[in-house]
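Notes continue from the previous slide.

Worked example: a multi-chain complex. Inputs as given:
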Amino acid sequence: MADEEPETVHELRRHYHAFAARALPDPPLSDEELVAELRARAKSEAGSGRERAREEPQPTQQANGPETGQSGVGS
Amino acid sequence: MDEDKPGEDKDDGFAQFVSEVRPGLRRHAYLLCGDWHEAEDLVQNTLLAVLLRWDRLLWPEAARGYTRTTLYRTFLSERRHARWSTETSRAEVPERAADEQFDAVGDRLILAAALRELPARQRAAVMLRYLEDLDVTHTAQILECAPATVRSQTTRALASMRASLSRQG
């Protein structure tokens, strides 16, 4: 079975570009409010020394990872 | 303890990083989760994990790569835990206003609807491969599976989506 279905991939990307071009709904917190909230949570977690339950990758793993495409988290 | 960087309110570049990556993160989180309420939680949890390691993310590329990886792994981890939980949060999320407002604008969210029909891991694999343009090896690394697994999942996912996209398109 083929790894890719070019037409479906093309269609997928076409819809994605249309989606990415649309304005997003307003977030519940502004950037400044979110950063303040995150810093408070980080301080609380660092203070309690609580281990995070979720799985988190090691930063060093990602430092060497390829960064391809322009549709990533920063776009 | 006061020297811990994550909680410090100072110009360490984190606020600027959040401003830069947040729109993309929100979009991808929405496509993963299928609704804005869950997506906002996922983005917050992802950025919190990034902040907790901020002092070790020395380059912008490292921070972006770590953020992407954390987004997908956190999503899959939360989905795994949700399966074993008695809470069926997804079906009962009360706050749908943002979804409805967004869905009402312009064309239908065909892409989101098609992705929603996929199992979580297939959805993540498809997004990494075809929307984030990562190769199979990098996708497998993020999803913590073998490249062959990525190939089989994307093949199955595309077959499902072909029907879905053509039905809706």
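Summary box: Helices of chain A lie at 6-21, 31-48, 59-63. Residues 60-72 of chain A have pLDDT under 50 and may be disordered.
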